[in-house]
Write a structure and sequence with these properties.
Endonuclease III, domain 1; 214 residues; mainly alpha; 2 domains; 0% strand; elongated; Endonuclease Iii, domain 2
Length: 214
Amino acid sequence: MTLDKEKVENIIKELEKLYPNAGTALEYSNPFELLIAAILSAQTTDKQVNKITKNLFKKYSTAADFAALKPEELEKEIKGCGLYRNKSRNIIAACRILAKKYNGEVPSDFESLIKLPGVGRKTANVVLSSGFGKDAIAVDTHVFRVANRLGLAQSSTPLGTEKDLMKAVKKDLWSKLHHWLIYHGRNICTARNPKCSLCTLKNWCSHYIRKKIK
């Protein structure tokens, strides 16, 4: 995929101007809490996750705490999340590994993170980016949709989109871009009926340009 550098620069400048303080909406106080919150966030809004973790982290604050639970005990605490039964099993299994292998600490490398139950590329990259300040692009539904509509990526898969974005922008912008695209997807470039008339990126947007030509 060959990209117009000027187009990319214009999009980046505009996104930075629109969302100067963009960051994760998940509430956490350390990488461990972020890991749990990120696992819970699959097919659940960050707002709903924050409601659950507000009380959850008061009761259980370490990997050992979660590792000692039975799945049905944790299920009661996270029932407000989608797929809560699977998430309960995965969180407990992941915490047992953290307690046994990593002394309760969250590993700060991608390969170790994705070996944990319930942790895929997106979750691992969220933890690396927001929890450890590393350069990473986590592709959720918003990032996937907005990146491909804008033309920053041309892929039918999250992994392909991640690779396209890594090529399109400088490494030190990866984490910021992830948050900018999420904010734009939530506010303007919605899944259904995107607000193209309000979008200040439309003159560089491949989706909008194709739509206008039709």
